[in-house]
Task: inverse folding
């Protein structure tokens, strides 16, 4: 996907990706807004591949905003922790819903590691709560050395 001209408004501070400009789903579409968030990953050399087979689907503003913030969290985690060289973002229509997948080939992690060897943040937890409150589902597949895949599905009816 071609880089948006306003990529310079997207920055990463301490591994957290922020967008300094207002999010305009109408002008850029959800995929375009998420693609802007990938700029810091591209700058560090990560290849970002897009799959967007959701042609013509109407995504309500609330669902678009939630998916945008999920992508922001997943991309921030990939930037901060993964050391990935490849990242795939997929936005697709599914039966009565929309699915966002952010997958990387980075370091991964052990979800069951509660020994303090892994930094524990609240990002994934808060993301899961917000998605569940919207009636959606979240899965995080990760394993040390095998990358991470975050999948969020939201209902559209």
Result:
């Amino acid at each position: 996907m071609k880089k948006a001209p306003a990529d310079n408004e997207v920055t990463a501070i301490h591994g957290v990706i922020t967008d300094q400009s207002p999010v305009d789903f109408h002008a850029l579409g959800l995929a375009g807004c998420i693609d802007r968030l990938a700029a810091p990953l591209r700058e560090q050399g990560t290849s970002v591949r897009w799959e967007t087979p959701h042609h013509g689907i109407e995504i309500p503003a609330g669902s678009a905003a939630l998916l945008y913030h999920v992508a922001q969290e997943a991309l921030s985690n990939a930037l901060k922790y993964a050391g990935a060289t490849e990242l795939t973002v997929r936005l697709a229509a599914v039966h009565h819903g929309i699915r966002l997948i952010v997958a990387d080939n980075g370091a991964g992690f052990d979800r069951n590691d509660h020994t303090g060897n892994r930094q524990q943040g609240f990002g994934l937890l808060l993301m899961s709560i917000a998605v569940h409150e919207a009636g959606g589902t979240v899965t995080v597949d990760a394993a040390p050395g095998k990358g991470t895949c975050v999948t969020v599905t939201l209902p559209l009816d």
